[in-house]
C-alpha cells in the first residue's frame, strides 16, 4: 500500500481518532435521571449515524417548505433548544429542523442535531404547548443518548453489526442499516419497529416536560397531549405510539409533576420566555 502523507493524515483525522475516541469513551455511563446505561459508541459516531439516517428520511419523504409551517415548527423547536442545559454541551450545535409532508402522526430527533416533524403531527396537536411536549420529548431522547444505548444493546447481542465500516466507507449492509435506523427510532419507515423501553420513555417524558416548562410552554399540556394521542389511536395507533409506547401511568405521572413545574413555567414567562408560536400557525 502506498499512502502519501495527506490521505494518511485524513485517515487519522476522520477514522482513527474517532474510533480511538469511541473505544476510550465506551462503557458504562449514568443517564441524566440516574439510570446506569451501556454506551459503546462515541458522540462522533452517533452524530454520523444520526446525520446519515436523517439524509435517508429526507431522500424518501417529501419536505414541506411552506413558510408558515416552518416558522411555526422552528419557533417551538428553537425555544426548547435555547434551554438545553449547558451540561449537555450542545449549545453550539447547528440544529436542522425539517417539516415532512406526510399524514403520519410522527416526529423524531436524532443525534447530530436533526429534528423532523410530520404534517400529520401538526394537524393532531391543539397548540404550541402540545407541539413543544412532542419535540421536547424527542430532543430528550437525544440528550439522554437513548439511540446510543439501544444500538449498544444490539451490538452486544449481535456480532453482525460492524459500525467501523460506516465511518470507513459511509456504506453499510442493509441489515446493519435497518438496525441503525431502528435504534434511532426511525424503524417504522423501514418496517422495523423498535419501541423505546419504559425507562427510556419515562426519562424522555420527564426531561422533555422540564425543558418545555423552562422554555415557557405550559407543562400541563404534556398530559393533555398524551391523553389525546391515546384517544386518537383507536384500532390504528398513531405511528408515534408504535416507537414511543405509552405506559398507562404516563398521563398520571406527567399530571403529578405539574405542581412542581408550574413555578418554573411562571418564572420563565416572567423572565420574558413566552413563546408566541401559535400566532404563526
Ligand atoms: Zn419516546
Structural notes for this entry:
By secondary structure, this protein is mainly alpha-helical. The protein has one domain (38-271). The chain is 57% helix and 8% strand. The protein has helices at 5-25, 43-60, 67-81, 119-124, 128-143, 146-157, 164-169, 174-183, 198-214, 220-233, 239-243, 250-256, 258-270, and strands spanning 27-30, 36-39, 96-100, 107-110, 114-118. The chain has a 3-stranded mixed β-sheet. The protein has a two-stranded antiparallel sheet with strand order 1-2. The radius of gyration is 19 Å and the shape is globular. Mean pLDDT is 85; it is low at 20-24. The chain binds zinc ion. Zinc ion (ZN) is lined by residues 137, 141, 196, 201, 204, 244. One of its GO terms (molecular function) is metalloendopeptidase activity. Belongs to the peptidase M48 family. Residues 70-254 form the Peptidase M48 domain.
Whole-number radius of gyration?
Answer: 19 Å
Q: How many separate domains make up the residues?
A: 1
Q: What molecules are bound to this protein?
A: zinc ion
Q: Can you tell me the residue ranges where pLDDT is under 50 for at least 5 consecutive residues?
A: 20-24
Order of helices and strands: HEEHHEEEHHHHHHHHHH
**Level of helix content?**
55-70%
Distance between the termini: 59 Å
Class inferred from helices and paired strands:
mainly alpha
Query: Hey, roughly how much beta strand do the residues contain?
Result: 5-15%
What's the rounded overall pLDDT mean? 85
Shape: globular
For the biggest sheet, the summary is: 3 strands, mixed
Number of helices: 13
Strand neighbour order, sheet with most strands: 3-5-4
Based on DSSP secondary structure assignment, what is the total number of beta strands?
5
InterPro entries: Mito/Outer_Membr_Metalloprot, Peptidase_M48
Keywords: Hydrolase, Metal-binding, Metalloprotease, Protease, Zinc
Pfam families: Peptidase_M48 (PF01435)
Family: Belongs to the peptidase M48 family.
